[in-house]
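Ticket #4471: structure output looks truncated?

Reporter: J.K.
Steps to reproduce: submitted the chain below (78 residues) through the standard prediction queue, then opened the result file.
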Amino acid sequence: MVAAIEQKVRELLSEVREGQDYTKLSVDIDFEEAGLDSLDTASLLLAIQETYDVDISDDDANELTTIRKVVDYMAART
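Returned output as attached by the reporter:
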């Protein structure tokens, strides 16, 4: 299940960043270092909420700064 969540997060990243390829991006690189600004990150988290039908609090959203953190967060809630 974790692998499927990671794959979906990478797909959503590519959608948010208009087709950029995130398949090889390290799961531990900070979104900002990967070229995402705060609007991109907010769009990603909104897409994740819609995809998985979950609510992500603002406090939690501030901590979700890497693919690994997002995957771990979602795995604990699905």
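Triage note (M.O.): checked the attachment and the full token line is present. The radius of gyration is 11 Å.
Status: closed, working as intended.
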